[in-house]
Amino acid sequence: MDACEVEFLAEKEMVTVIPNFSLDKVYLIGGDLGPFNPGLPVQVPLWMAINLKQRQKCRIVPPDWMDVEKLEQIRDTERREETFTPMPNPHYMELTKLLLNLASDNIPKADEIRTLVKDTWDTRIAKLRLSTDSFVREQEAHAKLDNLTLMEINTISTFFTESLNHMYKLRTTLQTPEDGQSQEY
Amino acid sequence: MMEDDVSDQASDAGSEEVLTPVELINKLEEAWLNEKFAPELLESKSEIVECVMEQLNHMVMYLSNFSISTGDLKSALLNHMEIERIRFMLSSYLRSRLLKIEKFFPHVLEKEKSRAEGEPPHLSPEEFAFAKEYMAHTEALLKNMALRHMPPNLQTLDLLKCVPKPDLDSFVFLRVKEEQQSILVEPETDEQREYAIDMEVGSQHLIRYRTISPLVASGAVKLI
User: Which residue of A has its CA nearest to B54?
Assistant: First the structure.
């Protein structure tokens, strides 16, 4: 799975926009949206918000958690705790990236927010490396990872699962295969 | 208006449940992700594929009539974007299935032949035709290029033994949709270290695919 596919899934998240045009209800396969009236907030999926923003048809309202104080708190808890702390949104990284790249003029203190989210991300990825290391060292076979987001899992998944598969093979080679298949040449 | 369409199709296809378009798209997304991460070919979801195709065609028809008649292109543009997104998911899903069929073609066909009556098929008719053709072409190529020039006792090749089987012991990440009690985790095959875990709704786990493959098939968990 590529990072752009994770972003594709993140683009389904709903955000609030304030349009500057009027339009009747839009009937999409995934549900109805609207009606759109100038100056009145309306909930739309992120992919649509980005498109409207690019065409300068709306103003994006940043999500509640995209706020310097809240993010500072989240960053500090993340640094204090040993384990992963819950994140404000399952797609916090993708949302930050997309919104700050396209709608930084609608988001107050965009630079600080970018730094805070980046710091949180770095802390979490470092933790993830440590925990994968101990997972392999302890020769575990199961892990619970409730607070990890899809993007984080996706950054290590291929490498990590491949290594685990190799480890598993190495640990089970000494046992006779279940099917009793012997290599015949 | 659209919801009626889908529920009609669903009942035509012989399924009990009535799906709204929103649920349909969610089901497609789940099938897509499961297929992406599972090491083996999963059950064929031809009903979902057909319904989604139907929905897309319906929407394209509606749009072509609509944009000519009223000329309000704003919402048509938004509809087009949504169609593109769904089309991407659908083609990505079918692509990953074709990749797996090509990778494990002898086993896929073998499994399909030995399947008991009443079990859900793992291949749609079109995929089955594709797999058979792929096998015939591969065999013909190997035979013509090299095998027929070999000594008489070495001219046959057992593809079932040559082509690797899907590795069900690979690790996967999953998210739980329905609560599961006491799933056995076996670190290795020696019995001393096996222990049971419970999975709560919404929790995420890393575990070997073999342990939870029935849960993926029943839809109790989804791969991420």
Answer: A29
In tens digits, what is the pLDDT along chain B, a chain of 224 residues? Answer: 444 444 444 444 444 457 788 899 999 999 999 999 999 999 989 999 999 999 999 888 888 776 655 556 677 788 889 999 999 999 999 999 999 999 999 999 998 888 877 777 888 999 999 999 999 999 999 999 999 999 988 888 888 889 999 999 899 999 998 888 878 777 665 655 677 888 888 889 998 898 888 899 888 899 98
Q: Smallest CA–CA separation between A124 and chain B, in Å?
A: 16
Q: How far apart are CA B169 and CA B221, in angstroms?
A: 17
Q: What is the rounded distance in angstroms from the CA atom of residue B66 to the CA atom of residue B73?
A: 9
Nearest to A150 by CA among A97, A100, A91: A91
Contact (CB, 8 A) for A160 and A128: no
Q: Inform me whether the C-beta atom of residue B65 falls under 8 Å from chain A C-beta atoms.
A: no
* Amino acid at residue number A69: E
Q: Residues B211-218: contacts with CB within 8 Å, 24+ apart?
A: B211/B183, B211/B184, B211/B185, B211/B186, B212/B172, B212/B174, B212/B183, B213/B38, B213/B40, B213/B168, B215/B180, B216/B34, B216/B38, B216/B42, B216/B174, B217/B42, B217/B43
Who contacts A168 (Cβ-Cβ below 8 Å, separation ≥6)? B169, B171, B208
E strand map for chain B: 171-176, 180-185, 195-199, 204-208, 221-223
Q: How many CB pairs below 8 A link A and B? A: 97
Distance CA(A89)–CA(B26), nearest Å, equals: 19
Instruction: For residues A171 and B171, give the distance between their C-alpha atoms in angstroms, rounded to a whole number.
Output: 14
Q: What are phi and psi of B39, to 5 degrees?
A: -70, -20
Burial (CB < 10 A; 0-12, 13-18, 19+), residue A78, is buried
From the CA of A111, how many Å to the nearest CA of chain B? 30
pTM of the prediction?
0.86
**Cα B119 from chain centre:** 16
